[in-house]
Every structure is written in C-alpha cells, then in structure tokens.
Sequence to fold (1102 residues):
Amino acid sequence: MFNTTDIPKSSRITRLVDNLYAKMPVIESARARLLTESYQATEGQPVITRRAEAFAHILRHIPIIIREEELVVGSSTLSPRGCQTFPEFSYQWLEDELDTVETRSADPFYIAEETKQELRKIHKYWKGKTTSELALSYMAPEAIKAIEHNIFTPGNYFYNGVGHVTVKYEEVLAIGFQGIIAKAREELQKCQVGDGDYAKRSRFLAAVILSCEAVIEYAQRYAMLADEMASQCSDPARKRELQIIAQNCNRVPAKGASGFYEACQSFWFVQQLLQMESSGHSISPGRFDQYMYPYYQKDIENGNITREFAQELMDCIWVKLNDLNKCRDAASAEGFAGYSLFQNLIAGGQNKDGEDVTNDLSIMCILASMHVHLPQPSLSVRVWNGSPHEFLIKAAELTRTGIGLPAYYNDEVIIPALQNRGLSLADAREYNIIGCVEPQKAGKTEGWHDAAFFNMCRPMELVFSNGMDKGEMVGVPTGDVTKMGSFEEVYDAYKKQMEYCISLLVNSDNAIDVAHGELCPLPFLSSMVDDCLKRGKTVQEGGAIYNFTGPQGFGIANMADSLYAIRKLVFQDKKVTMEEYKNALIWNYGKEMDEKTAFEITAAVLKNLEAQGRAADAESVSSILRTIMSVKPKEEQRARYNEIHRMIEEVPKFGNDIPDVDLFARDVAYTYTRPLEKYKNPRGGQYQAGLYPVSANVPLGGQTGATPDGRYAHTPVADGVSPSAGKDVNGPTAAATSVSRLDHFVVSNGTLFNQKFHPSALSGREGLEKFVALIRSYFDQKGMHMQFNVVSRETLLDAQKNPEKYKHLVVRVAGYSALFTTLSRSLQDDIIRRTEQGF
Amino acid sequence: MDYLETKGRVFDIQRYSIHDGPGIRTIVFLKGCVLHCRWCCNPESQEYAIQTMKVQGEDKVIGRDVTVREMIEEVEKDRPYYYRSGGGLTLSGGECLCQPEFARDLLRAAKERGINTSIESMACAPFERIEMLLPYLDLYLMDIKHTNPAKHQEFTGRSNELMLENARKTALAGRTKLVIRVPVIPTFNDTVEEIQGIARFAASLPGVDKIHLLPYHRLGQDKYEGLGREYMMEGIIPPSMEHMDTLKKAVHGVCSLDCQIGG
Fold:
C-alpha cells in the first residue's frame, strides 16, 4: 500500500522556482571552448579517445556553481536555465542566428557580444568536422531534395546529439562509477592483444574508464566548492546544508548511495552530465519511483529521513530538471517549442513479473509536479487493469491544475506492442517512456525515437502533381491524377508516393546514424547501457541490446479524411471530377492566393528561368510576384471551388465514432507503418513508426498546400492521432472511440492523443472519478496514450495579452508541457483554437 | 408491435454528459413540453412540432422522428464509458412525459441491455404516465421550481399542484431513486425563503435524500432570437457563487438533505 496524503510544499521550493525564472536564459560558451581546446590537442587520436578526453577536459574545467538554497547540486551553466553549445554536431545555424536568437519568437536566448565573438572563433575550427556535415555527405541526392522540399524533416539528430535514452540509473545508485569502472577494467583484462576487435574494444573501454573518472572528479569539485561555501557561510542552517552537500558529493556518484539523499544527488549528476556529453534531448529518468524506492524505504524504516524531507529533495530535483536547457535552431525551436528537454519520468505500472508496483514515491512524483508546477519533468503515469484507483485519482488531481501533466499510458497495449518488436515479456513489462510518447526498456535500448517528422500530407500533394513539387521531380511519377478511373488507382498512387518518400526518409536517417557512430560515439552514456561493455562498443555503434529507429508520421487524420472524401465525392457520388478536385486544391478552394503560395510559385518560375540560363533581376522578380498575386480564378470557378469545399465539409470525418470512417483511417495509417517496418538501421535494428507530431504540426502545416479534406493551404495539420481540430463534433467519448480504432499495437514508437477539457469537467471528487473512467474506457478499447489540456480559453487569451502575468502558465502542447508565454504566436493560437471545442 | 419500433420525436443527443446523473451519460432530448419556463435554455424543445431555428445565421431544422431502435443504437455507442463510470442513458427535453410510450420503450431498451437509466423531468403529467416508466427507471431527476402555485403559474405557464402531488406519489411508490432539482432563477425563486420552502417539501418526501441547486445561466439566450422569440429574462444576471453558497447553507439550515450546487 502507499500513502496518498498531501505533503505541504516547502517555501524553499517557491524561492528556487522564482530564482530560476527571474531572467531570460543565456547562451554560454565554456563547454564549446573546452571541447575545442581538447580536440585541438588530440588530433590524430582515435575518435572514441578524443570524445572521452574532451568530456574529461570539460568536466575538469567548466565553471561550477551552487545556487542559493539548493539541496541537490550540479549546474551545467552559471546562469539559471542557461545553455551550453555543442559545435561537434552542428554550428552553422547558430552562427547564422547569433544575432537573432535573442529576439526570435520561439524560445529566445540572451547572448553576450563577447560570447558571440568567442563562438565565431570556435566555429572556425569545426568546419568540415561535424556530424551534420558528414551525415549530409552520406545522404542520397534525392533524399536531400526531399528534405529541401519538406517531405520530412530529420532535423533533430541532423543538428544535435541523439539523446532519447534511459540509462541504468539503478546501477549507478547501487555500485557507483567506481563499480562501473571496475566492470570496465574487468572487460579490459579479458581483451587479448591478438583479438580481431582489440583496437576498438580496448580503446572504448579505456574511454569509458576515463569518462567515469572525470564524472567522479566533477562531483569532487562540487564537494570542494560546497566546503568552501560552508566555511564562509554565516547562516548556521545553510552552513550545515552545505556541509552535507559536500559529504554527498564526496561519496556519490563515485560510490553506491547509502541513503535516499545520496541517491538523489547521484541520480542528478547522471541526469545532468548525460546532457553535458551530448546535446541529445529526451534523456529520460524513466522509472524514478522504482529505482529510488529501496533507498527511500530503508531510510524511512530506519528513521533516517522524514517523508516531508524526501518530498523536498524530490521537489529540488524537479526544479533542477528545469535548470537544464538547450538552444535549438529557429525552425526546430518552433517544432519543439517551450524550451522543453522532454525528460520523461514515469510513475506506477508493473514489475517484470507483472505485479503492480505503485508505491509512496509514485504518489510523491505527482506531488512534486503539483509543488513546482513546471513543465519538466514530462511526468507520465502507467495505467493497467490492475492500477490502484487512488493513484489515478491523484494523477487526475494533477491534470486538473491545468499543467498538462501527467500523460497517461496503457500497459495493456504497450507491453504486447513491445513484445511484437522482440522485447522479452519481462523487459516489456518494465517499459518506460522516452521524450514525448516513445516506449522502450531502460538501460538496454538505443531507440533513436524521434528520428524525423514525416508529413503524410506531402505525398498526397505529389499524387496530384504526378511527383512534381515546385517545378522539380521530388516523388515518383504515378500518372495523371485527373485520368484515374477508380479510387483504388488514387489510393495506390498515394501508397507508391508514401513508399518512395519513406525510403528517402530511411536513407537520410541512416546517413545521420552512421555519422553519429563515426564522429560522436558517447563513452559516458555507453557505460550505463547494456551490453556496451561486453560488446566493447558504444550505443552509437550498436552496443545496445535493442536497437530501433522511430520516425514519426503526422497528419493521419487529414489523410484519412482526404482519401475518404475523394472516394465519396468523386467515385461513389460522382459529384466532383478529379480535375475539379485538383483545381480546387491549386486554388485553395477559392480563397485568395496567400503570400506564401505566391512566393513559392515565384521561386519555381525563377528556378526555371535560371535553368534556361536567364537570370532575373530584382525588378523582374517583383513583377513576376505581382503578376502571380494578381492571378485570380474566374468568378464561376471560385463559386465551384467554394461549393466543393462545402461538399467536403459534409463528408463524414474521422473522430466522430463512425466505424466506417475510423476503420478507413486505420488502413491509411498502415500506409506509413507497414513500409517503414521493413527497413533496418546501421545498428542492426528495425524501423518502427510513431504517430505524433510534437508541435511540428503547426510549422510544418505551414509548408503544406491545401489538402483534399478541405484543409486550407498553410494551416496546421492534425495533431498526433487526434482528429483534425474542430472536426470532432460528437464530444470526447466519440473522439476517443474513433482514435482507439487505429491499430496502436503496430505504432510501437508511440501514438499521441490530445484531449482538451474545460476545468468544470474535473470539478469535485465526482469530476475526477468520471475523468478517470474516461481514460480507463479509452484504454479498454486499446488506445495507447492520452493527455489533456485543462485550461479555460479566457485564461489563454488573457495570457496572450498580458504575458507578464502568466510567466508560469503551463499548457500541454503535444507530448510535453511548455510555458505558454514562451510559445510562438501561431502555436498559441492553435492551442486556443483547440480549447474552443469546449466539451 | 415490437417495442423497439416505437416512434418518438427528439431534437438532440448529447454524449459525454457528466452533470446529469451518475457517471458518463448520453442524454436524449425529447421534443415537446407542457411548460414554457421563461429561463428555459432549450426553448426549441418546447413545441412538439418540428421547427426551424437560425443558428449562426443558418437555418437549422429542430426535431426529427426516430424509433427506439435507432436511439438505443446511439446510446450503445458509449457503453465502454458507462461500464467504467456507472453511467448510462438520461432522457431530457422538453418533457419526456409528453411522449410516454416512446420514453417507456427507450428506457426499457436500455434496461434490457443493462444500461443505467435516468430522466430529467418536472412530473407535469397524469401520474399514470409516470407509473408507466417506473419499472425501467433507476433515477428520477425531478424539477421542483416553486412551492407557490401563483408564482409558478406566472413564470412557467402552469400551476404546480399536479407536480407536487406527483412528486409525493413517485416517492411513495418507492420504485426509483428520486433526486429533487431546483433551477435557481433570480427574480423567481432565488431567495432564502423560497429555496428553504422547496427544501422542506423535498425533505418531506420519503426516501429522498438529495437536492441539487442548478444556478440559472444564459447559454440559451441566442436561441430565442434564432426562433424569433423575445427573451423575457433580458438583463437578469446569473446568481453569484457566494449567493449559491448562501442558499446551500439555507437548505442545510432546514433539513438534512445532501445539497449540491450544479448537477
């Protein structure tokens, strides 16, 4: 049994949060400088050695700080919520955006003039040495072209480290890095000089040892700093705290943790430093309530700790998780808006034997999120038929606060879905969530979970253009769509475009994968993932037991509605011809030509002119643009396009509990999931699909023309597996039932279903009960994931007008929570539009 | 004739209703009412005849004839949600007692499928009609608007004797759970004395232990315009939360009923 009693929030936590958000985050250059110094000193050595040397050099010299009143220490930047940079992955975007990063609309960062100068100098060294440049050189030309044409976006790992992993925290807590070093030494001793893989294996193990030693040294630097601060501290209470911090950092993470407080500190160094080694995000703490529990339980039993103090320590960790930050390029910042690092922490669920293991700490995880009320960690809860009711009620109480947390996951779907991908039953039962919604087994998996955004709408555009996009062949020729005589022909053409585009997606992901393996293997991370030590290689080179690549498709609702409308209006009811449909799309259903389309057409015209050797001057460019802007359909054409749009509106849509439409959507989803799972990645693993957009459905919708479901050009596409915004008119139960009709079992990289509620839906105990019943019912029908925005429209509108009043307003975006005021205006509008459904 | 073929006239179905009876419910709104309450938020429900109403500038047909079979198929759709929440079917309106055969057969269809049943009704009909429903009814959410016949007459178009009598008969029959609901309408019944009067009456009914106070809201106002009717509650402000709390305390002052604000 577990204790669900509330624990009051300590006033320390309020002050820690206020200090954290007092200023705009800052970009710092210390890491980049130290990294580059080390790389310059190790030219010609093996890559793995250089990585470890650089990591060690950074940890020995990067400035350290203990913030006011902290109980758990370790900060990657001097400024709160600041970020370091990672030029070994890519730097060009930052170089280009140094002067605009402070004023951009999504996730701005302050950067000092001297930092800019230093980074510009550092960047010179990295030219030709980054993973992104190497990845580009490995990509097929047609894949590069598809990226340029926004068919898909592998930007995440193209620009950054991979991250998206959960390590064996429990092993560090148990034996410390001294224990892990001992294991590495043991493996090193087994190496025979005559072994075929001696060179790589021995260098890898040496790199692991060096990295782990550096982490121990780093903790000792904190111990010394804490001691020094204690000696100068006049407040006896704080002095005592600093002395304990010093003791903790002297012991952990070098040794195994002797109690809960040490375990918290040890956990934190691992969490922080994984994000110092690489810029990969979604470093997910996973089942914190499970691996921390033995330390908590022992301390409570022995009277070494109170429940209140344990809660305060957890709250401190929750605050620290928001202290880490990352600067992304402007386009990605739109797609991952809200400074999120997607550190997913999950509570509840089963153990490897299938018993429910919800405990005191599971509840305290929920309480911690209530106390700090911040976007990180991305808190998740596991739900199965045996989940304790009171645990879910507690989770619902957190949902009711409007923070968009937790996300709810269904064991009954995820466990078999993972088994279907080759995980053992025991491993599948112990799954946790990475990043947004991606399930995996901690400490054994390199899942490459967030491998790309694949826009399922773009291949449909290629069907209508016979493979052409903006004057270039991007897809495959599938024939003149206006001559197609049956729906099957259209659907087949879509499938062909999908298959082709998916093959290009795989090509580009694999190119990036290889580049990471060659240039940025990560020895510290690999020290905590099975079976890297035994196999003698990093996770980037296939050291993990389970290897996957999981790119996510989005726009499933748009494509299901599109194909359904084409079938009905053109081939069943014969109310519209394919030719008319095509023209209606070109003319955006009779809406005025928007600027974006005009610019795109102009660009295509110019490209053609250039290809013919006729370069255009500025004047002719603007005259072409003017001409295009002035082109208008004839009045009767416009009327017909409007009429077609009205007819489309009347065709049944996904999300309204109409089995015929929903099962059709299920089939359309297979056009993404099935071709994808045939492919292999360079680490020997399989591709697996996700259906979720993070927040990319807004910016990438902006790159998408009108679609046959009646969606206007350059408007957002549907979010995750959710119905298109405003198209689900029968309320949340109908929408949930529709979404559950997709085959979630094969979407083993995760599905994302957003629902929005007015706060009144969760009022009182009765409201919570009905809310939990809704989740349970969706899960009975084999949905995989569910998350909620509970905030009134009025609040959001007011926050747009008076952002300063709402600095802490957290909303669910898509797979994660973010501070509303930090989101770009368009994303804010989209969230407001979604809340308007007002169930 | 098969009871599933019984015909009735409805004007809306609302799934995921969470404020009208236990659990997650589907409400079927029946068309036609005997009263014309000035505050009615569904004025399109009052006429039995099929009407057109302007909704956001467009004509919308209000009312359609359906069979019990068609309706129960709609109600079936949310069975997974009833199962987890203890919810089910609620008949509302209009006044479902205006179509007693249809109401009875729809409730029966639900009961035979193991779906929980409830009606929202003001009991303004001969008691025989209520008796017809009782074998198939789990919960009666009964509106009692006022204890004063004259005032009742003035604001709803009918006096209240029949309803009060039916409330007592229903309670005495003991075949269904009875909950009394009071729409709290400023200028009509929102004084402490009026609410206490209703509470005393409710408390005198055998087996009744709950009373709901439903604060007046204006969400139906646009519909009057859409129907070309005058909204007689113009300028009336919904009661404040503080006032509702005062009324709740007033209820507790005169009886031991469990009183909740909202459904």
Notes: The first strand of chain A starts at residue 152 and ends at 153. The radius of gyration of chain A is 27 Å. Chain A has a mean pLDDT of 92.
